[in-house]
Specification:
Blueprint lengths: L1 E5 L12 E2 L6 E2 L20 E5 L11 H12 L12 E4 L4 H12 L3 E6 L3 H12 L1 E7 L2 E7 L2 H15 L7 H13 L5 E5 L6 H8 L7 H14 L2 H7 L10 H14 L2 H10 L3 H4 L2 H9 L6 H22 L6 H17 L5 H12 L25 H11 L3 H8 L5 H19 L1
Parallel strand pairs: 1-4, 5-6, 6-9
Antiparallel strand pairs: 2-3, 7-8
Helix pairs in contact: 2-5, 3-4, 3-5, 4-5, 7-9, 9-10, 16-17, 16-18
């Protein structure tokens, strides 16, 4: 957890000489957790790191806002290893005038704001204005625009709320400044979410829901779905994405989301996508299956079995290479080059590898379709299979994901045979763990 705050508001001990840590480029200064003096603030101990922004001024407030915005934009341009963009969500809990300014800055950049109603001070003032503001049409510079405003009674109530916590700033004109900022924030209806501290739903549900408010093109829909899958909130996807009539996913998009959900082992999303119309038969191709097995988690039994098989093959290839030591140098060098090329090709798992380990587990009582020689190569294609749910059930068993295995097994064409194979896989993996 990283905090960004103004350095001129933090009580740092500058009386003693700064100590330069051997591994640090900047001097280390002393900070105590004692109650700060008037005009200063304490660092929140619930953060692991703190950015203290200092521009050399002593009295100026909000000097960290610009730096915070630049850092947030930098982070939002990054992607996770799964290709999911990092969204920006500003969460406002209690807070002061600087929090209101930060909220305005966040929304102007097109980001999302979640306000915790009931947390006090600026948050409650903002929630009151957001819930009681009304939209009117006003002519500005000869052009009719829609703006948010407050009735006279609501304005009086908001002034009371401001005076309650910020009366000492009244001489600085904070009342009009805060009301104008709250009305501007209230105009961002799609990107502001109010969350009550008394609501039984978890905070992360509302954070994710806030990111689903805006509608958009196909890229927006896919980004929202991948984000929901990553967070594991199928209910959010169902309520905010699949419930929208304007949202229509193509078969290719559904296949992409189904692949992502299976890799992430999000069973609820797999079921949701199938119920929505994803064609499992069209999805289960050699290309997708190869990708699934190559994306197995390193903690799964299937991953360890495949890795062990590849290590044995590598050792065997090494033995075969040594046996050719009496060959002439030119030919020997060509063989070595050939071996290196094979090593590169075998970095990925092939379906024939899967057929081999299933055969080992079943001890000859069952022959996988992947034992066919045509799967003994890296070639991939869109060939479909007669029993796709049976194949996905065995994959889920090797992936140590029993809920997903059960979901696929319930739709199998040969439930008895597939169930026995899956049971045998689980027994083998349990024995391997023991």
């Amino acid at each position: 957890r990283v905090a960004i705050t103004a350095g001129n508001r933090i009580p740092i001990d500058t009386d003693e000489e700064s100590v330069l840590h051997p591994q640090a480029r900047e001097p280390i200064v002393n900070y105590t957790l004692d109650a700060p003096a008037k005009g200063y603030a304490a660092l929140d101990p619930n953060h692991t790191h703190h950015f203290l922004v200092d521009d050399g001024t002593a009295e100026k407030e909000g000097i960290e806002i610009e730096f915070r915005g630049e850092l947030e934009n930098l982070i939002c341009n990054m992607f996770t290893k799964d290709g999911v963009s990092l969204p920006m969500v500003c969460i406002m809990i209690e807070g002061g005038m600087q929090s209101i300014d930060q909220a305005v800055s966040t929304l102007r950049k097109g980001n999302t704001l979640v306000v915790l109603k009931g947390s006090g001070r600026a948050s409650d003032i903002l929630c009151y204005g957001f819930e009681h503001s009304i939209e009117i049409e006003k002519v500005v510079d000869g052009e009719t625009k829609k703006i948010r405003t407050l009735s006279d009674q609501c304005r009086k109530e908001m002034i009371k709320l401001i005076d309650k916590d910020f009366s000492k700033y009244r001489a600085q004109g904070i009342v009009d400044k805060m009301i104008n900022a709250v009305l501007e924030i209230s105009s961002f209806r799609e990107t502001v979410t109010v969350f009550s501290i008394y609501n039984p739903e978890p905070l992360d549900f509302y954070i994710l829901s806030s990111l689903m408010q805006s509608s958009g093109n196909s890229a927006t829909r896919m980004r929202q779905m991948r984000l929901a899958i990553t967070w594991g909130h199928a209910r959010v996807a169902k309520e905010f994405i699949f419930s929208r009539k304007e949202y229509k996913f193509s078969s290719g998009e559904l296949n992409s989301l189904l692949l992502f959900s299976i890799i992430k082992q999000r069973t609820a999303f797999v079921k949701l996508l199938i119920d929505y119309g994803a064609d499992v038969r069209a999805f289960v191709t050699q290309t997708h299956l190869t990708r699934l097995y190559n994306e197995l988690r390193s903690s799964t039994g299937g991953y360890r079995l495949l890795q062990e098989k590849r290590k044995k093959e590598k050792i065997e290839r090494g033995k075969n290479a040594k046996s050719d030591g009496d060959i002439k140098n030119g030919r020997k060098n060509r063989n070595r080059f050939s071996i290196r090329r094979k090593d590169k090709a075998l970095r990925g798992v092939m379906l024939s590898d899967v057929g081999s380990i299933i055969g080992t587990i079943m001890q000859g009582s069952y022959k996988s379709i992947f034992c066919d020689p045509k799967y003994n190569e890296r070639a991939q294609g869109d060939e479909t299979f007669e029993n796709p749910f049976d194949i996905l059930t065995m994959y889920s068993a090797l992936a140590d994901c029993q809920p997903m295995a059960l979901l696929f097994w319930e739709n199998c064409k040969t439930p008895m045979a597939t169930g026995l194979v899956a049971h045998k896989i689980y027994m083998f993996l349990d024995k391997m763990e023991g």
